[in-house]
Amino acid sequence: MATRESGRAQGGELEEKTDLSAETDAKLLQCAQLLQANQLNEALQLLTALEKRCRVGNDNASLVRVCEAALKACYEADDTATLLSTLKTFATRRSQKTAAIKALVQTALPWCVQEPYTPLPVTGTDAATKRDQLVEALRELTDGKIFLERERAQLTRVAATLREEAGDIHGASQLLQQVHVETYGSLSKREKVEFILEQMRITLAAHDYVRAAIVAGKVSRKFLAEESMYDYKVRFFSLLTISHRHEKDALALAKDYHAIYSTPSTLQDETQWMAALQATVLFLALSPYNNEQQDMMHRIAQDANLEKLPAYQATVQLFLKREIIHYPTPHQSELESSPALTEGDLGTHWNEVFFRRIIQHNIRVASLYYKRIHGSRLAQLLQLNLTTLEQEIAGMVSEGSLYAKMDRPADIIRFCPPSNPEAILSQWAGDIEELLHFVETTTHLIHKEYMTT
Fold first, then answer.
1. Per residue in 13-30, pLDDT tens?
2. Is 185 exposed, middle or buried (0-12, 13-18, 19+ CB in 10 A)?
3. Which residue windows are coiled coil (predicted)?
4. Which of 211, 287, 337, 387 is deepest in the core (most CB within 10 A)?
């Protein structure tokens, strides 16, 4: 006879709990006998009635056993339609217990998912169709249920993988973006980062670079700096290089490759760190001149590993010296053949940018030594035609990296900015102060000589 006891508190009253374990044992044994006689429908009818008694009686342990037995009976009978129907029926029962829904999903999950995020390998079109149907049914079942958010993430990623394998990259990307894994409390930090990296990869494969940048912003750089996250750090910045290469952002690419290079796991492999350091130097040279670029280039110049890359060390020194660089550089061919420049069919673009950066460097050097100079003379010094020179100077002035004024009728370029009255007065005051200091020092020395004689 079933025993009754007090259950959990709900609504101010105690729920009545019935122990149906003995009846469940007997009914499951009877169900097994019906299945041996190939009577699946009769067995399911028996389990359905027992499921209701366990659910109403608040016997969660027996309820979970009944739900698992019903699904396994359908799976072993290879009846996918009945399996999907039973799964939906049991999960959507009125006042169905959380434990029962979780048991249904976790029981069916291994039949379509290979841990952690791989679709279960199958042979044949029919088997693949059945697996895909089960994945979609489980995704629908887990939608909106916080206690199944881990399973929801697994199933969504598997569904995205299936769409990607079918050639629907955009569909896979949109599907994976539905999962806001950063808000899931049941996933560990590593699992969240891995899932976000997969979101980045699939959005980049779909050429959705704006969405990829948004997804990348969800990853904390502080987490990536931890020792256990080094592999994810390299993957993250490798994916960022794809996005920044599309944007043709040389400085961002230099930062990405330097982050890869500075990872301890990369420094242990000479092949990897050499490639990362070469790319860092190249994209630094291709970056527009600013304080950040110069600071990074000075830090790279002090790296001892750079001595093992003579061509790249020479390139860094060229851009740090206040001397005119002659084009092509001594190591031009080696730099242009670097895989970092030829990747993505952007070799021609980067070569043009490199030529412009050399011109801009030479103009900055000239502005340090000349307050004014004839344009034709400057073009001769830099081995440029006058039109190209004027275009580059105009571009640098517009960017704010250089002060210059061009008098085209007189063919004069002025690099010295005019001083305002406040600056002139401050300079005059400084000169007077320095002069008075010299007078005072001289007077002191004269008096000292008189006293000693």
1. 446 788 888 999 999 999
2. exposed
3. none
4. 287
